[in-house]
Amino acid sequence: MTDEPDDPDGARTGEPYRVAELTWREIEAALERTSTLLVPVGATEQHGHHLPLGVDVYMPEAIGERVAERSPALLAPPIWYGVSPHHAFKPGTFTLSSETFRRYVADVCASAGRWGIENIVLLNGHYLAQDPELEIVVRELRTEHGLEAFHAPLVNLFAEVAAEIRTGDVSFHASEFETSIMLELLPELVHVDRAERVDPPEESLPLTDYDALGTNEVGWALTADDMDELTRAGNIGDPTVATAEKGEALVAAAVSKLCDLVDALEDAD
Ligand SMILES: [Zn+2]
Predict the structure, then answer these.
(1) Angle at Cα 126 formed by Cα 59 and Cα 12, nearest 5°?
(2) pTM reported for the whole predicted model
(3) For 171-200, what is the mean pLDDT?
(4) CA of 178 to the centre of ligand 1 (A)
């Protein structure tokens, strides 16, 4: 197979990759060329005045599309609901219990294992908050289902680039990074005119009693009451410094790392 000469990204064949749009026979054919499934995992939760509730799904799904366009991997329908109890102080937020979420994601992935998928990459757009659950899912898929499973929080994939390009001090939620990525991926859903800078008040640190050391050296978790005290708008950080150019760089970094991972997995099979 050769790359199209006019394709600067080395994109592959234009093969369809969205599992939900294929027939079972087409999946059978796709499994001749790949054994890797990308699973976007997000949450539907408040993202301030300027971003829609679906950001944490839109980001990994669009990044998954770009990876699937450049690699043989298939793209699963996304997991729309996640673990978001700390965002329940605003309407439109859905949250699952930790146990329900873990079981649901693990069952989705295990069923793909039964029809021939060997490698699972969980593209986590609701990073930090549901990292612990997805780490457990990965362990279960590996130990109980024999799958090569990976948890890829987007924030880790673009961390180096983010450190280089950031201009705001705090980008905790719905701020510089998420807004920039949405400006790159789905600008029509970003209300730039409503973006508001929210600095966490000095006296709010440490954020909870559990973080009494103030250094994240002991485990803790934000509650909806904590978030309600921290931000009226819903975001924490400065979305007004977000740009599509920053988003493009963050997305490119994530896509490139994921393509490397898929290549390595496909070569190993
Ligand atoms: Zn988010």
Answers:
(1) 35
(2) 0.92
(3) 94
(4) 6
